[in-house]
Amino acid sequence: MDFILDFYLWIKVVHIVSVVAWMAALFYLPRLFVYHVEFPENGKMLEIMEEKLSKIILKPAMYIVILSGGLLLLIPGTITHPWVHAKLTCVFLLIMFNSFLDVVRIQLKQGSCNKSSKFFRVINEIPTILLIFIVILVIIKPF
Question: Which residue ranges make up each domain of the chain?
């Protein structure tokens, strides 16, 4: 526990930076899917971009968010706040969205995805909505 308290601000910095990286990747990957569906002639190039984005930025950032957020949850009293539970629910939904994007990425690579570019444009808003809720919960702490 002393480690967490001694390095609290550094853990918070790592958490915030990794959240920004994760969110940027969550915003960009569905946009790549739009291009993948609309311009199948560029499929190979887009597959490479999607895979690198996923493996180099998206997944590592998500894991660092989970690890650093988990450390922050160990601070006494943190987990007792209802807003934290709501935030964790939103984070869980982002993790599920992340997993869904990974499945779609593989389907696009295999040529078995039947989703439209409009579908990807719509779901591209999901992380934005969840991010808005998370920021409100963390800053306002409405309950």
Answer: 2-140
